[in-house]
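Below is a filled-in request sheet from our internal design queue. Each sheet records the structural input a requester submitted and the sequence that came back. We keep these sheets so that new team members can see what a complete request looks like end to end.

REQUESTER: design group, bay 2
PRIORITY: normal
MODE: inverse folding
CHAIN LENGTH: 148
BACKBONE (tokenized):
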């Protein structure tokens, strides 16, 4: 469950709304960083950012053991650069998969939403920052303080 307030979530959504394909960075089994473009399929009221993936990917396997990830959103023509750090959760929920299903996902999973390999990843942001090109500075949208 998100601990961000409504304004934090709204600010983040407004920054990343138009960037459909961020770079998704995670750690492999050796701790090496890997990145790939991923289509942002949905966000939720709690601030979670959702992606479709396959159970047959290294990403799916690796986040089970190392769930800390980073999402990098960029729209250079608007001088927009956003970094979101968070925790990835593996989600196998056929009802949610059907509700989020779209033509783009169909291209990757021709068997449809009941394809056993079609699954979801939800990223729960714990910090988000963007670069304000007008002021040439980094701006923190929010950061969650973790209890020791």
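RETURNED SEQUENCE:
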């Amino acid at each position: 469950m998100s601990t961000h307030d409504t304004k934090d979530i709204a600010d983040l959504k407004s920054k990343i709304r138009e960037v459909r394909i961020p770079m998704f960075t995670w750690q492999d089994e050796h701790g090496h960083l890997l990145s790939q473009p991923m289509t942002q399929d949905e966000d939720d009221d709690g601030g979670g950012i959702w992606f479709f993936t396959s159970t047959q990917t290294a990403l799916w396997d690796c986040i089970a053991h190392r769930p800390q990830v980073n999402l990098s959103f960029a729209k250079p023509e608007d001088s927009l650069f956003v970094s979101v750090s968070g925790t990835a959760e593996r989600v196998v929920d056929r009802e949610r998969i059907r509700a989020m299903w779209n033509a783009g996902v169909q291209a990757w999973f021709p068997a449809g939403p009941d394809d056993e390999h079609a699954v979801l990843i939800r990223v729960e942001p714990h910090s988000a920052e963007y670069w304000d090109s007008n002021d040439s500075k980094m701006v923190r949208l929010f950061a969650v303080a973790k209890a020791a």
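SHEET NOTES:
- The first strand starts at residue 23 and ends at 27.
- The first helix runs from residue 6 to 16.
FILED BY: M.R.
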